[in-house]
Design goal:
Blueprint: H1 2-25, E1 32-37, H2 47-55, E2 60-65, H3 79-88, E3 94-101, H4 109-121, E4 133-137
Parallel strand pairs: 1-2, 2-3, 3-4
Length: 147
């Protein structure tokens, strides 16, 4: 009888303990969601991203902005983009990348460098316009001997 009682106690304590211990020892990987925001930040159009940043604070949202197939032809972003970027910059879990199209490596390096400089210069307007990086689209998939 004591063997049966000991076995029952062992199972009653051991099974739940075995089921919960591994979960506590496993560290989940961080989640990072890449979001191409290739549309203008018109009234309310980026609200879902704000809602997601608040609702999922443990998730990092990497947002690629594309004002005019790159930073655009002017040195400063439009007022709508300034407001939108400053608003997104308030969230610790949002990273903002600027978009540059490389056209498969066919675009002139000087032009691409100038677009990089435009994005970098945005922080001169406001520190909250500082981007986390740049997303280079359509990069060459073969080594063609030039960068």
């Amino acid at each position: 009888m004591s063997v049966t009682l000991t076995l029952a106690l062992f199972l009653a304590i051991g099974i739940p303990l075995a089921a919960t211990l591994p979960r506590k020892m496993i560290t989940p990987l961080p989640v990072n969601v890449l979001i191409p925001m290739y549309f203008k930040p018109e009234l309310g159009s980026w609200d879902r991203l704000h809602d997601a940043a608040i609702r999922y604070p443990e998730t990092t949202f990497t947002v690629v902005i594309n004002p005019e197939n790159g930073p655009g032809s002017t040195v400063w972003p439009t007022a709508e983009y300034i407001d939108a970027i400053e608003s997104l910059s308030k969230y610790e879990n949002i990273r903002i990348l600027g978009y540059i199209d490389t056209d498969g490596g066919k675009r002139d390096n000087a032009t691409i460098r100038q677009e990089i400089a435009v994005y970098v210069g945005w922080h001169n307007i406001s520190k909250s316009l500082t981007l986390s990086g740049i997303y280079f689209d359509r990069t060459p998939y073969k080594n063609q001997g030039h960068a």
